[in-house]
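User: Can you help me understand a structure? I only have the sequence.
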Amino acid sequence: MKRKSYVFIDRQVSDYDQLLAHVKADTTVVLLDGDRDGVAQISEVLEQQQGVAEIHLVSHGSPDCLQLGATRLSLNNMAQYANLVQQWRGAIAQSMLVIPAPFAIAPLSRYPLLPRLKVP
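Assistant: Let's start by predicting it. Here is the structure, written out as tokens:
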């Protein structure tokens, strides 16, 4: 059985609909509501999953935080969300690795390899 992949896209990302055109057909896209806690939204989706191959987060951020829906996740409030984020690990088949990417701070045209990534 093929493992499922997810991409969570914050609707507050400009032109997120352009990213959707590059998402592989077998990947589940979840659009995060900007008026709700994004960490909770991701947790709601993943709580019933096991063996997930990949989780990708597309959002705005800065060196010390990540915007997920109405939540600004940072080192200052990570303890508040630690249990929810640790629960994501239960859905993932392998280890979980978070790699910040520059896509949220620069135009997509500057990254011609984007369509070749697994998601998007």
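Now, to help you interpret it: The chain is about 25% helix and 20% strand. The longest helix spans residues 78-91. Let me know which part you'd like to focus on.
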